Amino acid sequence: MYVAVKGGERAIDNAHSWLAEERRGDTAIAELSVGQIREQLALAVNRVMAEGSLYDPDLAALAIKQARGDLIEAIFLIRAYRTTLPRIGHSRPLGTGAMACDRRISATFKDAPGGQVLGPTFDYTHRLLEFRLAADGAVPPTAEAEPQQGPVPHITGFLNRDGLIEEETASDEPPRDLTREPLEFPASRALRLQALARGDEGFVLSMAYSTQRGYGRNHPFVGELRVGQVAVEMDIPELGFAVEIGEITLTECETVNQFKGSKTEPPQFTRGYGLTLGHTERKAISMALVDRALRWKELGEDNVGAPAQDEEFVLSHADNIQATGFLEHIKLPHYVDFQSELELVRKLRAEAGQAGEART
Fold this sequence. Notes:
The chain is α+β, with helices and mostly antiparallel strands and 360 residues long.
């Protein structure tokens, strides 16, 4: 692509050197460390891990530093690195019911069994700039809340017990792996959820917002939103039992949606689901809303033509790495293509001019 660029490899090397210089910035200011990014820009790190499909806060922080804060570029770096890693096995399905919750809220039940924990949230802040942060002043600490220990029941389970919400159908069939197999349509719900979990937060948010505004017949309540740590277990054939190999932070959202019934299903509440790596609430909620909108066919609903109901449209355009690659390739040299278009336009204009003269 870059063969036609004046200067060739030398120009590209100089561009890389200039990029490194711009990334470093003013050398009179202390360089930002990977540890600082990991600890103090945690939400950006979490997004890169979630959309990069790799749970490693240190690598995500390094990618953010290398990308100069461009999160999509950082996600690209993580995805590319992920392809170099060997896969030595599979973990067991994660048990989010045993999550040690740092945050657990419900918009459906005030007195939720197990209690509600606000946790670290912007929800109740006044959105006023903290100028003490600019002056390197510490914001007064508050009492630290301990995460909830032990199993915390899912709130939708209580609706399920009374038969008020659709039942989830269990299956032992392993879902296809989107990171190893291309996306095909029609896609199963498990595959759709994988695509949404890796999808661009802004795009998924826009799709979710469209459903709330009427483009998808979606009237959701957040049944439960929880953020916390979950143990990862792996079966070891030589041992004959599962071993805990680590712990990761997850965000899980279950929505409860109105449903008046259809030709195949009785009136009941229906479900939307979102599960993402790290603390990524906006993404998990958006994912749950879009998941519900895409389930119109299995619930026997009518397709009203809303964008969020179009599986191929949503899943084909949710991935920001594919979108970025296709979008940004047009800034690379296309000299030959343009010259052929230019010659064609000149020829058509000449023919149109000759035809005009002939009429006169």
